[in-house]
Write a structure and sequence with these properties.
mainly beta, 2 helices, 4-stranded antiparallel sheet, single chain, 47% strand
């Protein structure tokens, strides 16, 4: 499946809506900015090969407590940027370049956060890499190739650049072709978890830091057609919440870090009872205090808010709030968790909504920034 068709396979792509090309706006802002902003910096990814063409990688800033995002510059040479992670020292940013038939991962020097410098691009050994993480050892980057259903291991070299792959873990779907959608470290850093939408599975593996090789430890198989997309761990470290793309549900799993084992224990709806039409969860996140979880739902275009039970093992849907855009692929909380930032892919907008710390619920949309074919927001 091509990168373009992956982005539209859930239905025909909607119109540009509120999206407008902001190339000149980003260029003008970059010329005016002579030094790093005192505000918070974020990186915004968008698809350059999808109509309307996005920018790839944009740098934006947020001044103090003001939620509005201000464009700074577009970083050249980073096509189809769709996921971000950074090294623990904060000096290197890694980005998936979601190309098809062969994707890549870019490494950028962000020692000056508003002026990323491209260090190089390395093949992901597969198609449409859609997610990545820096391994807990800080010696490897792992990326999930959606198109080919595999996870690649790329060694981090001196200076932050990436070397050729040391391993490629190929998934196999029982009923559908595999589509790896996420790869993450567990909270202890000992285990690597990869989520595969096509194989209806979550894989738990170890990574040998001496050889850069993955070894499968456990495979959790979910009900056929669940389409697991992304999971997020609770801060307590004993539970994870898994958003299912093909069913509007979140699966709660217990996590035994000592044994490296996931166990599904509950399934919770991500939409109110009686919802119909397109219902496709996207991103999932958990608040730092562990009291709330959030999922975007494409179709109704909402942020679903869940309260977390006292022992962290249960979720309850408490609200569904309009994101103010079309097809919310991703959601990010500001570093102080007072604002939500939602990447609405089909309307080409990043919208921001206030967050009530006591109830956990989003308020009404307070503003937006147009970025064609936007897919994610990452705070530096």
């Amino acid at each position: 499946m091509s990168g373009l068709s992956r982005r539209t396979f859930l239905g025909a792509a909607g119109g540009a809506g509120l999206a407008t090309a902001l190339g000149p706006q980003f260029a003008d802002a970059a010329t005016a900015l002579c030094r790093p902003s005192a505000g918070t910096t974020a990186y915004v990814g968008s698809y350059t090969s999808s109509p309307p063409a996005g920018h790839g990688l944009d740098v934006v800033t947020r001044a103090g407590s003001v939620p509005a995002l201000t464009p700074v510059r577009t970083v050249p040479g980073v096509p189809d940027a769709s996921w971000f992670d950074r090294s623990r020292d904060g000096r290197t940013l890694y980005v998936t370049d979601e190309g098809d038939p062969t994707g890549s991962v870019s490494a950028l020097d962000i020692s000056t956060v508003t002026s990323p410098k491209l260090l190089g691009r390395t093949s992901s050994k597969g198609s449409a890499p859609t997610h990545l993480c820096v391994h807990s050892s800080q010696e490897f980057v792992l990326a999930a190739n959606y198109g080919s259903g595999s996870v690649v291991v790329l060694p981090i070299q001196a200076g932050g650049g990436l070397g050729a792959a040391t391993d490629l873990q190929q998934h196999v779907g029982a009923e559908r072709a595999p589509h790896a959608h996420q790869v993450v470290n567990d909270p202890t850093g000992r285990w690597v978890l990869s989520v595969d939408l096509g194989a209806d599975s979550v894989y738990v593996s170890t990574l040998d830091a001496a050889t850069g090789k993955l070894a499968l430890h456990q495979q959790i198989t979910l009900p056929s057609g669940a389409g697991p997309r992304h999971l997020a761990f609770h801060p307590g470290g004993h539970y994870a919440y898994l958003a299912q793309e093909l069913r509007p549900e979140v699966t709660v799993l217990s996590w035994d870090a000592a044994a490296g084992r996931l166990t599904p224990i509950a399934v919770v709806p991500a939409v109110p009872a009686g919802s119909s039409g397109d219902l496709f969860p996207g991103e999932i996140a958990v608040s730092k205090d562990g009291r709330f979880a959030y999922a975007t739902v494409r179709g109704p275009n909402t942020i679903a808010t869940f309260s977390v039970s006292g022992d962290d093992s249960g979720l309850t849907l408490v609200s569904s709030v309009d994101t103010g855009g079309n097809w919310p692929r991703h959601l990010a909380l500001s570093p102080d968790e007072t604002w939500f930032y939602v990447a609405n892919q089909r309307s080409g907008t990043v919208t921001w909504l206030p967050r009530d710390a006591s109830t956990g619920r989003p308020g009404a949309v307070a503003g937006s920034l147009a970025v064609p074919s936007v897919n994610s927001v990452f705070f530096a």
